[in-house]
Amino acid sequence: MTAGPTREKIDPVRFISNYSTGTFGYEIAREALRRGCRVTLVSGPTSLAAPQGVKFVGVETAAEMRRAVLKNIKNGDCVIMAAAVSDWRVRRPSAAKIKRKRESERVLELVENPDTLREIRKRKAPAALVGFALETEGLRGNALKKLKEKNLDMIVANRLGRGSSAFGDKKTDVLMIDRFGRETEAKGRSKRELAKIILDKAFGLGI
Q: Which residues contact 53 (CB under 8 A, 6 or more apart)?
């Protein structure tokens, strides 16, 4: 189970990240524990307390998350990747704090991070591999594309836009699509309610 954001350093005091709070992933981890599962939670920086009973692995960067995931999937039956992993990192982070200069511009050169979700299938074939997608447009089309390109068993997609609440503990809408093309919509549900639905679907894929 992965959750939360990752951070990519610009200098010792600044970083690139996103608005993920980790709430979704932590709720899924709690629900899995309630069902008697052994859970490893690989989490980026959040303000949340790790659910009691999980094997907790704290990470910061996308590279650290990749190493932790690939190390811990060896004995896993179900891999759920709910973390909001940074797609890019700064090529050369500054070792010292970057000072602001009057009338100057600063350009950050970014490089792509490895695609851990895609890599999992090459390393291991878990009974269920579940990915997440947050979109601002083309929800179904982009979800289907990610499902197929990354060889997932299921994708959980939600839309970020006017009237939608994707971050934190607010209720949200999701679209779930499995490898057989079956679609399930859940609207106005809490992350705790969605955690139950997602695990029901994942466990039904052959675990």
A: 33, 39
